[in-house]
Amino acid sequence: MSKWTIEKMAGHCGAHLHGVSLEKATHLALEQMRAALFEHGVIVMPDQHLSPEGHIALAEFFGNIDVNRFFTPVANHPMIAEVRTAPEQNAVIGGTWHTDHSYNKSPAMCSILSAQQLPPFGGDTHFASMAAACDAMSAGLRKVLQGLRAWHSDSSFSDSNVGLEKRLDAFRDPVLHPTIIKHPETGVACVYVNGDFTTQFEGWSREESEPLLSYLYSFVTQPIFTARVAWEQGMVVIWDNRLVQHYATADYSGHARLMHRITVEGVPLKGV
Ligand code: SIN
């Protein structure tokens, strides 16, 4: 088939796409997939079994690959990052709500995760719609946030215990992004602060920022804004990091899990 069948997963984000092989997709089918990504924030494509070359080609359809400075690369494929959990590890990469690469000046547009080895249970990934959260906010809070920018930093990688490489040369200066962004493709307003990388509001101390940031983190990740992906072997999931945050569930202790991830570079973000 040359067209995808698209089924919504939840009220505010996520869609399953069936009926097309990514490695054989026509340009039209790829365009339909990109439109679905911008509409649903996260798209789930089962039974793809992408080769590393197919994974890279898919990422290049969206833009330039933004190689993660902290993750271990896949052997012989430096553009692809390993998201690996060893059986003896309790913490996992991405095990808290976050937005990939928000510490970059041009933060990640999308991330493409391809399942390689799955635990016998658990290991689901949750997604939360930052557009739905923004929409549900009071006009008063939204007005305050529209006037604020926040600092994002990669410093949380320095004390992570999830088996990332200790690469001292990888750290960069913090960057500022608007707290409410205008999605670069659709213009939709989205909340853009996350618990892993946002440190404080511009002109505010960390102590002053902490209560409002904590409130926002719990507000934007309420179950009503989320969808949950239960992984299958060969499944490919793509999410738009401006539209959703994500959370990897660390509930499969004693078992291994391996995903291949490519992140695609985005553009500098503008406020609404
Ligand atoms: C990530 O944060 O990119 C990891 C997501 C996952 O492993 O499910």
Summarize it.
The protein has helices spanning 27-40, 52-62, 130-136, 139-146, 206-220, and strands spanning 5-8, 15-18, 42-45, 73-74, 77-85, 110-117, 125-129, 149-152, 175-178, 180-182, 189-191, 198-201, 226-229, 236-240, 244-248, 257-264. It is α+β, with helices and mostly antiparallel strands and 272 residues long. A hairpin with a 2-residue loop joins strand 4 (73-74) and strand 5 (77-85).
Topology:
Layout: E1 5-8, E2 15-18, H1 27-40, E3 42-45, H2 52-62, E4 73-74, E5 77-85, E6 110-117, E7 125-129, H3 130-136, H4 139-146, E8 149-152, E9 175-178, E10 180-182, E11 189-191, E12 198-201, H5 206-220, E13 226-229, E14 236-240, E15 244-248, E16 257-264
Parallel strand pairs: 2-3
Antiparallel strand pairs: 1-2, 3-14, 4-5, 5-16, 6-14, 6-16, 7-13, 7-15, 8-9, 8-12, 10-11
Bound molecules: succinic acid.
